[in-house]
């Protein structure tokens, strides 16, 4: 019995659920003629932060929308967004709603597109404080992408820094009692000689999706934690003719949002099920 089939049996997942074609998730105001990706929701599901770029996937900006009676509001720049020409991308809101992570070029005085991880904290009044750049060794002279905080406070991210297994790898940063960070390469099978550059991990820590270019273009690869080791479950069904990017697990880990090009002019968010009976209340419904 293959690894994917065995995992499906043991965890009540079905291989057919993974193979089903993803469905477009394109609420009014969120979807546009531009490229939307990398969604993140607050714990109550009433706010969404996401990245919008040009149709060519350039000029990245983080936008923010609130859920109201008539649906999602017209997106506005996130409170922690940088002014142009700096670019921001890959937002994520911690599971307790107290921290927002993202990557930015704002630290580059030379105007380069090297990306570092930044973090903003949310006060009791709901406002976001001034974002702070995370220190080395979380950040490096290379680019860091898609920061994802786990329930125990570690940080998963991608980076093409020196010393990896390939063109880009997945890293895990662990905060230390003195306020410093310890960073380690996630290692095989998540990091390979190919180009892995994003990873989203479920809230329970049992499912992980890697964005990797392993010879053609970037696609989504799923892993399950079994007996303390990550086991590969194969590629998530999506459009092989285009790249996928910016995955986000649902709180239960049974659904996945991601972005891919939807036409010659735009990229949209798509939704796929990772289990036989997912909680269909996610993504959060707004305006129903």
In a nutshell, what does this entry contain?
Keywords: Signal. With 288 residues, the chain is mainly β.
Describe the structure.
With 288 residues, the chain is mainly beta. It has a single domain (3-273), classed as Neuraminidase, CATH 2.120.10.30. It contains 2 helices and 21 strands. It has helices at residues 3-10, 15-19; strands at residues 23-25, 35-41, 47-53, 61-68, 71-72, 76-77, 88-93, 99-104, 116-121, 132-133, 144-149, 155-159, 169-175, 181-185, 195-201, 207-213, 218-226, 229-235, 244-249, 255-261, 267-273. Strands 2, 3, 4, 5 and 6 form a 5-stranded antiparallel beta sheet that branches. Strand 15 (195-201) and strand 16 (207-213) form a beta hairpin. 41% of the residues are buried. InterPro entries: 6-blade_b-propeller_TolB-like, WD40. This is WD40 repeat protein. Belongs to the TolB family. Pfam families: PD40 (PF07676). It comes from Tahibacter aquaticus.
Shape: globular
Which superfamily, in CATH terms, is the homologous superfamily? TolB, C-terminal domain
* Helical proportion, percent range: under 10%
Count the DSSP helices.
2
Number of domains: 1
Low-confidence stretches: 1-18
**Overall mean confidence score, pLDDT:** 92
* CATH architecture classification: 6 Propeller
Order of helices and strands: HHEEEEEEEEEEEEEEEEEEEEE
Our measurement of the CA-to-CA distance between the termini, rounded to an integer number of angstroms, reads 44 Å
Largest sheet: 5 strands, antiparallel
Keywords: Signal
Protein name: WD40 repeat protein
Pfam families: PD40
Organism: Tahibacter aquaticus
């Amino acid at each position: 019995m293959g690894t994917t089939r065995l995992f499906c049996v043991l965890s009540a997942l079905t291989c057919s659920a993974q193979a089903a074609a993803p469905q477009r998730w394109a609420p009014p105001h969120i979807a546009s003629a531009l490229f939307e990706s990398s969604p993140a929701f607050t714990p109550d599901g009433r706010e969404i932060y996401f990245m919008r770029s040009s149709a060519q996937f350039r000029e990245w900006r983080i936008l923010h929308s609130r859920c109201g009676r008539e649906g999602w509001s017209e997106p506005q720049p996130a409170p922690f967004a940088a002014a142009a020409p700096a670019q921001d991308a890959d937002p994520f809101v911690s599971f307790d709603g107290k921290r927002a992570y993202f990557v930015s070029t704002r630290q580059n005085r030379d105007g380069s597109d090297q990306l570092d991880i930044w973090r903003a904290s949310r006060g009791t009044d709901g406002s976001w404080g001034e974002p702070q750049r995370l220190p080395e060794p979380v950040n490096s002279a290379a680019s860091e992408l898609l920061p994802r905080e786990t329930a125990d406070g570690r940080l998963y991210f991608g980076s093409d820094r020196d010393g990896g297994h390939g063109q880009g790898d997945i890293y895990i940063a662990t905060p230390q009692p003195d306020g410093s960070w310890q960073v380690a390469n996630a290692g095989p099978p998540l990091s390979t000689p190919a180009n892995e550059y994003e990873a989203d991990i479920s809230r329970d820590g049992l499912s992980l999706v890697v964005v990797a270019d392993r010879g053609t273009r970037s696609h989504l690869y799923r892993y399950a934690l079994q007996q303390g080791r990550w086991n590969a479950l194969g590629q998530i069904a999506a459009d092989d003719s285009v790249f996928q990017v910016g995955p986000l697990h649902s709180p239960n880990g049974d659904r996945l949002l991601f972005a891919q090009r939807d036409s010659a002019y735009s990229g949209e968010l798509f939704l796929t099920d990772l289990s036989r009976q997912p909680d269909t209340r996610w993504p959060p419904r707004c305006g129903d």
